[in-house]
Amino acid sequence: MKSVIPGVLRDEPQFARLFIGQSLSVLGDRVSFVAVPFAVLSAGGSASDVGLVAAAPLVPMLLFTLVGGVWADRFRRHRIMLLSDLVRFAAQGLIAALLLTGVAGVPTLALLMVVFGTADAFFMPASTGLLPLVVAPDRLREANALRGLVQSSGLVLGPALAGGLIALAGPGGALALDALTFAVSAAFLARLRPRETEPVTGQAAPATTFLGELRAGWGQVRSRTWVWSGMAAIAVYHVVVLPSVFVLGPVLAEREWGGAASWSVVVAAFGVGAVVGDVCAYRLTIARPMAVGAAALAVASCQAVIIGSGGSLALIAVLEAVTGVAVSLFFVLWETALQTHVPEAALSRVSSYDYLLSAGLMPVGLALAGPVSESLGVRPTLYAMTVIAVPAAIALLCVPDVRRLPAYPAAADGTVPHAAPEAALP
């Protein structure tokens, strides 16, 4: 009988441990995303307070992401992730306890979310850098696709689970579950035994100061045209396109589509498309991953014009599902390319610049989307977003190093290794 377990989980036991722990944590994060606003409201907060608490973890992300990248390249990455999980378990557990006992206040919630965001800033670069240490190079794409599949599935399952938990136990009960997932993730990380990172070749001497290591990481970015141009395109996507989904889409749904129920159909359709995109990324063998990724990013960047198209709800949902496929495909290929072509010893620093330019700049777009739409109108703003974002993705595709980047770096004899045989998803 054919096994239903994906091959990378069977063949890579260290990755299997990481995957199980992180899958539960991702589901908890999706629950938290829904529960936190209701937690603020249950503590007597206003709509402005909801925004304040939502923004609280973003500030330390801006301040500490680059620090997290340096530390993750300097120390054992899974131990940084373990410590981060323990801090997030404590912060989220305390929030849950305060809510369940009825003594939570908005300032306390905001402060604890700052602590949570600080731990996140150290976790993310370490997580990207850890994967090549627990997965063989020819299985990285499969591993990233499986991780993406969990994240995409969480977009569908998380809100439903959160709604049930909030109805049964309130926001405090939902966040208590999220806290528990961090404890479970920490337990799996404690049992992880990744291999050591390999030193950067061709480097005369390792940088020993923080600024020296940070400059060395930026040197890795600057020396690869496909990396810095890819980061620039991703920054445009986060600053220009995502506000159409997080800000203007709900506004348009409230005004013209009948409210939250209709918007949830669009969001769910995107989630289904994202799952399909992850399955495609798992199954397909792609010789030029960044060329395909750039084309996918151009499709993903059409979300604003789709939302503002004036089409029927069914048509918009179907087109958003297509963009969901493109978004998942791009980010799986992007992360795999970084992990495959960037030296292991510098990977977390490179990824920290990536996170800084994406998650760090996204609040700028979120803050500007509302005022700009009030001045120009919602639909003209959505069209303008598309006019900016789609050419940026097409420009990425026009970069020769992007189009030519192979799936695997050339070996010492100049040959390019082939991927291992594909393992089918169940």
TrEMBL record:
GO terms for cellular component: plasma membrane. Keywords: Cell membrane, Membrane, Transmembrane, Transmembrane helix. Its main location: membrane. The chain crosses the membrane at residues 50-72, 93-115, 149-168, 225-248, 260-282, 289-307, 313-334, 355-376, 382-399. One of its GO terms (molecular function) is transmembrane transporter activity. Pfam families: MFS_1. The keyword Transmembrane helix applies. CDD domains: MFS_MefA_like. It is found in: Cell membrane. Coiled coil: none annotated. InterPro entries: MFS, MFS_trans_sf. It is a multi-pass membrane protein. This is Predicted arabinose efflux permease, MFS family.
